[in-house]
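User: I'm curious whether this sequence folds into something compact or stays loose and floppy. Could you predict its structure so I can see for myself?
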Amino acid sequence: MQGPLLRILVVALVLLAAAMLAIQYAFPPGEPRTAAMPWAETENATVLPAGRPLPEFELTDVEGRPFTNSSLEGRFTLLFFGFTNCPDVCPITLQVLASVQEQLRNEAPDAVPDVVFVSVDPFRDTPERIAAYVAAFDPSFIGVTGPDERLEPLIDALGVGVEKHEHHGEQYNVVHSGVIYVIGPRAEWIAVSSGPHVPPTIAADFLKIRAAYLRRPPELEPSHAASAH
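Assistant: Here's the prediction. I'll summarize afterward.
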């Protein structure tokens, strides 16, 4: 098998394994959960039976400010993990997310989520580099990262597939999943989209998930519930 075809096959297999891992992590037994989600008939996304609170984490945004659990509160968020040197999965997925945002701004301006790009390559991805990278897709995108030990709690909790292939010094590649995670306004994981990523489908699924989440028993603080977007 020739090099390019082999690479495509390897990437596809890694993405499939990562997607299966993410879905497996979404349904583990014995984990603390919040209120059950009402049924949401999505076309592609997998909705968790109940929200899963994220572990405590502390990353840093491109302005050098802490990005923690509280940074996700009060809004819906589409969370994606990648790195700026990514040749395929990241630019494709971020362009899809930019199209999703544009569609939602036109169709449901009061329901537009945040999009957060988490770099899993903190060694090379400086704040300046991440800022320029995400802004090229959509100026509203939020870029964050942190040392491996600070990324680990979030990566482990969501079952994000990340593999670093070392070569020589800074010459290495990072194979990772193209999964998009939907985070609710209580900083809890509520759904996952594992592809294929089609902007109208993601946008429609998100609106259904958001509506289902807001139909849950009123567990949000009044201030959060009122400001959730």
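Summary: Confidence is low (pLDDT under 50) at residues 1-32, 220-227. The CA atoms of residues 190 and 216 lie 12 Å apart.
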